[in-house]
Design brief:
This protein has 335 residues and is of the alpha/beta class. It has helices spanning 18-28, 50-55, 67-77, 92-123, 127-135, 156-169, 175-198, 227-236, 249-256, 266-269, 290-296, 311-316, and strands at 6-10, 36-40, 59-63, 86-90, 207-211, 240-244, 261-262, 275-278, 301-304, 320-322. Helix 4 packs across helix 6 (156-169), helix 4 (92-123) runs parallel beside helix 7 and helix 6 crosses helix 7.
Length: 335
């Protein structure tokens, strides 16, 4: 009692019911007169933008049924809440679900667009045009509608799996979220099959270059990165794999050792290449010198896993080009 009232704030992404368990654990090891509250206050920080998101949060979620704790947290956050942002107060369990639900919804948008991209592939539509049309609807918005190789990193894969497990344990399996996870795993496999089909399954001895290793730009994080499936399959097929990433090279080297070639530059990797695979959409990859690239490569073939190039412009520069949810250009442009 002498230490006074305390608030224990849980910032982590945790399973539903964690606040209750923390409360029970503290009560088991403290005097019955000790005054405290446990609050669920999940962080919503994007990797690469953590400081900005902390100083200018879109919303703050406070999970507590204690008016005393809520008042204290409101006072704490008041200097950081920009105009237009909101502080949302709810019970502890709802707060814990909110964090998982937000990340799972973002994962769902990504998997939906990737599944739709495969449909566009089949019917001859352009997923980039579809994305623009869909994203212009203010009810949907433009964010997280970019088709690619699937989500990775430390948050979305973990949170989707955790919410699936928690829902299963509660007897209310989330069928939509199960599909999200399955589509995410299948997406990188579909993309690699494009590589196999182009080379008719004969990858042995080919020099394949990968641009981008991190799960997204502006980080060196390779956790759950889609590139690992691509690399593993290329190595199984006995291709020679050269890689370049502005930040993540050392992390990948710790995983693969001397099984890969680690280029000092994006262009340096292309010398004698039979194919380029773009995995991460770093800005420096968006407007390369295509003339130099074509001179360096043995075969001018690009597999674009992030749709960062314009297919017709690429074809006009003499490349064979494969992307996601858009027509593959297997023939050179007429001269």
């Amino acid at each position: 009692p002498a230490v006074g009232y305390k608030v224990i704030v849980d910032k982590s992404t945790v399973p539903v019911g964690t606040s209750e368990k923390v409360d029970e654990a503290i009560r088991r090891h403290t005097d019955s007169k000790f005054e405290f509250d446990v609050v669920s206050n999940p962080e919503f920080l994007r990797e690469g933008f953590a400081v900005e998101d902390f100083l200018r949060p879109e919303r703050v979620v406070i999970g507590s049924r204690s008016e005393r704790a809520v008042t204290l947290l409101n006072d704490l956050y008041e200097p950081f809440i920009p105009a237009g942002s909101s502080v949302i107060v709810m019970d502890e369990k709802s707060s814990e679900v909110t964090k998982y639900a937000a990340n799972a919804f973002l994962a769902m948008k990504i998997s939906y667009m990737n599944d739709l991209a495969n449909f566009c592939d089949a019917v001859g539509a352009d997923v980039e045009s579809v994305r623009e049309g869909v994203g212009a609807d203010s009810r949907i918005g433009r964010k997280y509608l970019f088709p690619g190789l699937g989500y990775g990193g430390s948050c979305l894969p973990k949170d989707v799996k955790a919410l699936l497990k928690t829902a299963q344990d509660a007897g209310t399996p989330l069928a939509i979220l199960q599909s999200v996870e399955e589509i995410n795993q299948e997406q990188r496999k579909r993309f690699f099959r494009k590589v196999e089909r182009h080379f008719k399954g004969k990858l042995e001895g080919l020099r394949v270059v990968i641009w981008g290793l991190a799960f997204k730009p502006n980080t060196d994080d390779i956790r759950e990165a889609p590139v690992f499936y691509i690399i593993d399959e290329l190595l199984k097929a006995k291709a020679q794999v050269a890689v370049f990433d502005p930040e993540a090279m050392n992390n990948v080297k710790a995983r693969y050792g001397d099984r890969l070639e680690y280029a000092e530059s994006s262009y340096g990797a292309l010398q004698g290449a039979d194919a380029l695979i773009v995995v991460t959409e770093w800005n420096e990859f968006r407007k390369p010198d295509f003339g130099l690239m074509k001179n360096l490569m043995r075969q001018p073939v690009i597999f674009d896993g992030r749709n960062i190039y314009d297919p017709e412009k690429i074809r006009a520069r003499g490349f064979l080009y494969h992307s996601i949810g858009r027509k593959s250009l297997e023939a050179h442009a007429p001269t």
